[in-house]
Design brief:
about 300 residues; alpha+beta; Nucleoside Triphosphate Pyrophosphohydrolase; six-stranded mixed sheet; 8 helices; about 25% helix; globular; disordered N terminus
Length: about 300
């Protein structure tokens, strides 16, 4: 796998998803019987881990009982030629799922991401997102008939006699913004969202709506939540966020002025922070965003004076 330890979590791994091959049911069946193939077991959106809290990986040829008790495997891709599948044991009680997988516990990948390499975190999050989609797309939204997985689990086809609609995994894009004040001293705008701790400051973010570009979404979200107009906007990067189906797209923006007016609904307070303010928070043990989120990279680059 390719790794990128400097980038945000969940984007540092690479699998050959073999899109040109996975549409062949015979090829998928042969990969399940391949002695090199491995299974990543999940239960209720949680990965199954060993006593050392490392994700369980099982050879498919030694997992007949697990496969019989699981939903249809989802083909994730090839890791240096080795087929990798994800399986969902959610139809079983948790103790039974743990026993079938030889696992110690079921945990959310975000709880163990600090101990995973970038590639492993990316694959685990990818598997979680795919399995979540399968559980939620068992019925066709057009006619209500049962759907069946195809193409190694990357498509679900409606079984209705007069429908036949194809359903594909959904991705829900969102934008996240580091907003700078114009002029000196350098300041960035952080907000306290409803439900956050009294000192829980974070960047502004929001989902992209139908019919708008990413840039449109940045302008709208800033205007709606904080009454801020920005004069300059620059793309900074993106992050897979499969919890369950997000894609975080990061921007850096320069505000037209220093005034703001929070909406009082989603955002209850906002404040301009200098670099010294943020350094003081770090020194006091206050993290700059989640360890696995792109907001930490945005704030870190701003704090270091990187464009």
């Amino acid at each position: 796998m390719r790794t990128d330890e400097q980038g945000p979590a969940y984007g540092g791994g690479w699998l050959d998803r073999a899109a040109g091959l996975r549409a062949d049911p015979g090829w998928i069946s042969a990969r399940l019987a391949d002695r090199e193939s491995v299974l990543l077991p999940f239960w209720q959106d949680r990965c199954l881990v060993s006593a050392e809290r490392t994700p369980v990986r099982l050879p498919t040829v030694d997992a007949a009982g697990l496969l019989a008790a699981a939903g249809e495997p989802v083909f994730l891709g090839l890791d240096a030629g080795r087929p990798v599948f994800a399986v969902d044991l959610s139809g079983n009680p948790e103790p039974a799922a743990l026993r079938l997988a030889g696992a110690a516990e079921a945990v959310d990948v975000r709880a163990i991401v600090a101990g995973l390499g970038a590639a492993e975190a990316a694959v685990q999050a990818y598997a979680k997102g795919m399995l979540h989609w399968h559980r939620g797309q068992r019925y066709c939204g057009g006619c209500g008939a049962l759907t069946r997985p195809r193409e190694g689990g990357h498509v679900r086809a409606c079984g209705g006699p007069d429908c036949g609609r194809l359903h594909f995994p959904r991705v829900e894009p969102a934008v996240i913004m580091l907003v700078e004040a114009p002029g000196e001293p350098g300041r960035c705008l952080l907000a306290r969202h409803r439900g956050a701790a009294e000192d829980g400051w974070s960047m502004l973010a929001g989902f992209v709506e139908v019919g708008e570009s990413l840039e449109d979404a940045v302008h709208r979200e800033l205007a709606e939540e904080a009454g801020v107009t920005v004069s300059r906007l620059a793309y900074q990067g993106s992050q897979a966020w499969p919890f369950p189906a997000g894609l975080m797209v990061a921007f850096r923006a320069t505000a037209a002025g220093t005034g703001f007016e929070v909406d009082g609904d989603e955002v209850v307070e906002a404040r301009w922070f200098t670099r010294d303010d943020l350094r003081a928070r770090v020194a006091a043990g206050r993290p700059l965003g989640r360890i696995d989120s792109i907001d930490r990279h945005l704030l870190g680059s701003w704090l270091d004076g990187r464009s």
